[in-house]
Structures are given as C-alpha cells and as structure tokens.
Amino acid sequence: MANSYYAVYEHIVFSTKERVNVLTQEIRPQLFGYFAGAIREQGCFPLIVGGMPNHVHLLLRKRSDLASSNLIRDIKRSSSKWLNTGRVIEGEFHWQDGYGAFSVSYWDLKKIEAYIRSQETHHRRMSWEVEFRKLSVKHGVEFDEKYYLD
Fold first, then answer.
1. pLDDT for 32-44, tens place per residue?
2. Which of 56, 82, 108, 123 is deepest in the core (most CB within 10 A)?
3. What pTM was computed for the model?
C-alpha cells in the first residue's frame, strides 16, 4: 500500500487532584473549549469534551505518531497552567497524576459521545470511583484499589 491510513480513537478520563469538586458549571464550558484547542494543537481531533466538577472526559482521534501518555501529560500541564495563571479557580489547581485511556471503535463513537453528554444524569446514579472502576473492568484494565477513594 502506497499510503498509510490511521484512525485511532480514545476516551480519556482523569480527575482533579484528590477528586476535589472545583470545576463549576461556570468554569466547565471554558475549560472544555480550552481542552479542545489543546487537543488540536497536538495535531489530534477532539470529538467531545465533557465532565463533572471533579473529572473530565475527552473523546478524540489521535495522530499516528503521538503517544497517549505524552498527549495527556501536555494537555494536563497546559490546562493547569491556564487555570492557575488565569485565576479561573480559587487557589492552586492540580490534576491527579494518573488517567484512564481507553480505545474506542469507530462504530461506538456515537454511544461514547452520548455517554459523555449525559454525565450530569449518569452521576446521579454512580460516583466517579464506581464509574472509573467499571470503565477499567469493561476494557480489561487491571487496577490497584489503593488508588480509588470511596
């Protein structure tokens, strides 16, 4: 084949440090817009960004030569700086150290987009910790319980 074709989609999830509820409804639209721009700056394509007061969900198409760990490190770093220097959040802001990055089939993109859009409703029934455990189990990811807070 003369050309290379690449379409890899990821659902990335991470929380605020210690899962503190600081991402208010007023802040989230700006933050989600910032994330979309930061994702584009990395040469990736954001499909949807959403979340709750203590965590975010990013659904994106990655570029072929970019490791997920580098993408996530860079967007977490730049968004923390933006939140702190712009005085968007009172006090010093940090994201948690870890993250979840889950592959998504092209055929499941609409389902994941709907899931991210319905976070408000979804979290009336399920905490962040339970949600993340379920995502991990669904994708066959082993995890250490000591990193989860109930």
1. 999 999 999 999 9
2. 56
3. 0.86
